[in-house]
Amino acid sequence: MKKQILIILTAMAAATSLVAADAGKLTFVSGTVEVNGGKGWQKASLGAIVNEADKIRTGGKGTVIISLKSGATLKLKSDSQIVLSAVGAATTIDVEGGSVFSKVDRKTAGQTYKIRAQTMVAAVRGTEFYFAYGQKKKAKADLWLCVNEGQVNVTDSSTKSEVNVNAGEGIVIPTDKAIPKPKPYAWTKKLNWNMDAEKGDVEDKTSLKGAYKDLLKNNYD
User: What is the 3-state secondary structure (H, E, C) of 15-53?
Assistant: First the structure.
């Protein structure tokens, strides 16, 4: 009898673990999109379930939208890769390359959402923002971020700098330099924030080449 109870409890624990690992699903897939759940990269399809610790990447003409159970929505542009490191009351997304849009619903007190890249952490409670890797120099790359709604707190452990970026503002963090003061850059106004295919085109066709040109063309100081 004790052995049977132990087997039942073990099975229940395993089932609970599987449920907890369920992080969300893919609500839009276009072009090359792949998921790696620990057994190599596999082609992803619309409606596919993704789990905590899964890696997700897009190819040269790929776009994917991920609806997380925590209430956040992610949109990966082409040539991007993320890891769903933790999804729940404390959600953490590690961005390993490319560009990512995040839309985070205002949830109950205590819930957090973080994006990590290199030595930078962007933390929010309820907002909509865009993050991207820029030109790479040596082992690190420039980092870009702008906010469409709400506020994002950005910290960088390598330079021990911190700023709050508000709606309509953006920042570009040059390699190994402190986070600059947020500004209403022109390049931020061209981004496609839509994450609902039923409401129109969701693919963002902007390029960071235009953002770099914007910095050279306009004197924001």
Answer: HHHHHHHEEEEEEEEECCEEEECCCCEEECCCCCEEECC
Higher pLDDT, 188 or 21: 188
Nearest CA-CA partner of 130 in 119, 143, 111? 143
Dihedral sign computed on CA atoms, order 104, 24, 91, 85:
negative
- Asked whether 100 and 74 are in contact (CB, 8 A), the reply is yes
Amino acid at 169: E
**Number of helices followed by number of strands (H, E) in the chain:** 2, 17
Question: Are the CB atoms for 72 and 105 separated by under 8 Å?
Answer: yes
Contact present, 152 and 163 (Cβ < 8 Å): no
Name the pTM for this structure. 0.88
Q: Which of 104-118, 160-174, 188-202 has the lowest mean pLDDT?
A: 104-118
C-alpha span between 51 and 84 (Å, rounded): 7
Binning pLDDT at 50, 70 and 90, where does residue 108 land? low
pLDDT of residue 107: 62
Domain boundaries defined on the chain: 2-214
Place of tokens 């949830």: 107
Q: Considering the chain, what percentage of its residues have pLDDT values greater than 70?
A: 89
2-214 has CATH 2.60.120.1440 classification: yes
